[in-house]
Specification:
heterodimer, A: alpha/beta, 12 strands, 32% helix, B: alpha/beta, six-stranded mixed sheet, four-stranded antiparallel sheet, globular
Chain lengths: 336, 288
């Protein structure tokens, strides 16, 4: 990444519960997304990945709150924006899609009308222009027979078609960043592949950056340039997707990848160990590394780990100072 | 596959299930009879003791409806279902109750299938007592044994479902199903909602139940990779029809049907980028 990133999150902390005894779900997350880059945020339930994503749009609802940190979009502080600035930011610069497109679409309006409404209020288009453009947008996200489909109600569309409508809505004003929170989790694999291809096409055509939140390494591997792995409210490792596969440094990343079932196992007897134990509860206040209690490589010094990401190679950072998988032959000049 | 996996325990023959669609106003006025939706269309398959048969397919392919037909949660319109020589569809009253004991279902969401107000030990014991299982007179020992079988600590018996993690809850649902001594387990997307680190452990548990108890498992899943990991054979459904069935390795490595091919092609390969690394031995902490 060269120059200033499109999106820079630093030290983000999201808390719940009373102010004098807060429960932190996101504990100092740092993440950057460059212009036109597709970044994956992967983690298991409760890791804080969705909250991190929603924080960018300031969609953390009380009693949840962003307690610390900064979120900069092209250098502008998102957390300091006024209501009007925030509205403009959401309308023009960042779009968001969710796991369940059915609950984000209004069931009593035709999908075309919903896009027209968005175009008129966000882009100030006239009725006829907006109608014409809505059909173009539906066509652009690969909906066949868009004139007719614009007249459909959400319940008349399949899950994949609804997600396409959501993408058309979220990208109507050509945002430079699309936040996609588990965009394909509710979809069939064939539909999933189409939606992921669509996101890649929008990136290629418009240079739109995408932050994809997912629990599925398959999804991440298919589309992402770079990935950040989250566990227990921290980013524990970040690297280009190829590096993660070839030489992941954090034991959690390794354990997670080794748990992923593979088609290639067909006919073989495989036993994956999974990860023993369960992720930390919000109420647990762990000293040092949050993964240490479940880590096969934990040692006493893990109690003093700060969870800060340290570089091990250009564009590859990990929060694990133990680095049990570091290449022994040639230590590549990374700080130990 | 274990040695006993030869003679089929559960046989499904020509099962068909139609769902009537509501007619539009126009159709009602003109007295047009709407074509019913055929959810399961003439499906035949069998599962042997000590075998896991995967049932794959996209959403709406009819895999769940077929699974429900097998234990008559949904009454099929046609066909035969035979468990160890007994006709499941003809059974009534006491016989049906007993057949349902011998075939247990595990659902995707254990939170919805466990009573939230009942401690998990009580739930397991109740299942055992209703079916008068041997050993269920001694409540504590029975519950402990059933929990241990799914690798849960007996201390969890006092807990309520909300106090358990997703993986623990699904283990409890399996323990309760096993408490009645079934010969067939029907797992309907039983691991789909779990995180992969927990999912891996549950898959090991299903493999153990197959190998140690010799139960036959009909394993419904939309994730082909999950099926690849534990199923001996796989059946692929599309639009209500069975399009392909065979040994998992054969079907996945050399699919014959176009739908199976498309499904496999669309399946995300988590290790596309990692395949090369694996070949060079980098994945397991080796120097380059």
């Amino acid at each position: 990444m060269s120059g200033e990133p499109l999106l820079a999150i630093d030290g983000l902390r999201v808390e719940f519960g009373p102010a004098d005894a807060p429960l932190a779900a996101v504990k100092g997350v740092g993440l950057e997304v460059g212009a036109g880059e597709i970044v994956g945020l992967i983690g298991e339930s409760g890791s804080g990945k969705s909250l991190t994503c929603r924080s960018v749009m300031r969609l953390i609802h009380p009693p949840g709150r962003i307690a610390a940190g900064s979120i900069a979009f092209e250098g502008r502080d998102v957390l300091a924006m006024s209501a009007k600035e925030l509205r403009d930011f959401r309308a023009h610069e960042a779009g968001m899609i969710y796991q369940d497109p059915f609950s984000s679409l209004n069931p009593v309006f035709r999908v075309g009308e919903q896009i027209v409404e968005t175009l008129r209020s966000n882009l100030g288009m006239g009725k006829d222009e907006a109608r014409k453009h809505a059909v173009e947008l539906l066509d652009g996200v690969g909906i066949p027979d868009p004139e007719r489909r614009a007249l459909s109600y959400p319940h008349e569309l399949s899950g994949g078609m609804r997600q396409r409508v959501m993408i058309a809505l979220a990208t109507a004003s050509r945002p430079r960043l699309l936040l996609a929170d588990e965009p394909t989790t509710a979809l069939d694999v064939t539909t999933q592949a189409q939606i992921l291809a669509l996101l890649q096409r929008l990136r290629a055509e418009r240079g739109m950056a995408v932050l994809i939140v997912s629990h599925d390494f398959g999804v991440i591997a298919q589309v992402c340039d770079r990935v950040a792995v989250m566990y227990g409210g921290h980013v524990v490792e970040t690297a280009p997707i190829g590096t993660i596969y070839e030489q992941a440094e954090h034991p959690y990343t390794r354990a997670l990848m080794e748990s992923v079932p593979e088609l290639e196992s067909a006919g073989k007897r495989v036993r994956r160990p999974g990860i023993p134990g369960s992720p930390p509860e919000l109420t647990e206040d762990l000293e040092g590394c949050v993964f240490a209690p479940r880590c096969a490589y934990a040692r006493p010094s893990c109690k003093d780990v700060s969870m800060a990401l340290e570089p091990v190679a250009p564009d590859h950072r990990t929060a694990c100072p133990v680095r049990p998988f570091a290449r022994t032959a040639a230590t590549t000049g990374a700080p130990a | 596959m274990s040695a006993a996996a030869t003679e089929p325990l559960l046989v499904v023959e020509g099962v068909r299930k139609e769902f009537g669609l509501r007619r539009t106003l126009g159709e009602r006025l003109t007295r047009v009879v709407a074509e019913p939706h055929v959810a399961v269309d003439d499906v035949s398959l069998s599962v042997a003791r000590g075998e896991i048969l995967g049932l794959a397919g996209g959403s709406g392919s009819g895999k769940t409806t077929l699974a429900r037909c097998v234990i008559r949660l949904v009454e099929p319109d046609a066909g035969r279902i035979v468990l160890a020589g007994e006709d499941v569809l003809a059974a009534e009253g006491k016989d049906l109750r007993d057949l349902r004991r011998r075939m247990q279902m595990i659902f995707q969401d254990p939170y919805a299938s466990l009573n939230p107000r009942m401690a998990v030990g009580t739930a397991i014991l109740e299942a055992g007592r209703v079916h008068r299982r041997p050993g269920s007179e001694d409540g504590d020992a029975f519950v402990r044994a059933e929990l241990e079988r799914v690798h849960l600590s007996a201390r969890l018996a006092e807990r309520h479902p909300r106090e358990l993690s997703g993986g623990q809850r699904q283990r409890v649902a399996i323990a309760r199903a096993l408490a009645v001594g079934p010969e067939v387990l029907i797992a309907d997307e039983a691991v789909s909602a779990l995180d992969v680190s927990v999912q891996a452990q549950l898959l090991n548990l299903f493999a153990d139940l197959r190998d140690e108890l010799g139960v036959a498992i009909l394993f419904v899943a939309h994730q082909l990779a999950v099926i690849a990991e534990i199923c001996d054979r796989v059946a692929v459904m599309s639009q209500g029809r069975l399009v392909e069935i065979g040994a998992t390795a054969t079907v996945f490595n050399d699919p014959q049907d176009d739908y199976t091919k498309a499904l496999l092609a669309a399946h995300p390969h988590a290790h596309v980028a990692g395949a090369a690394a694996k070949a060079s031995g980098l994945v397991d902490n080796a120097g380059a």
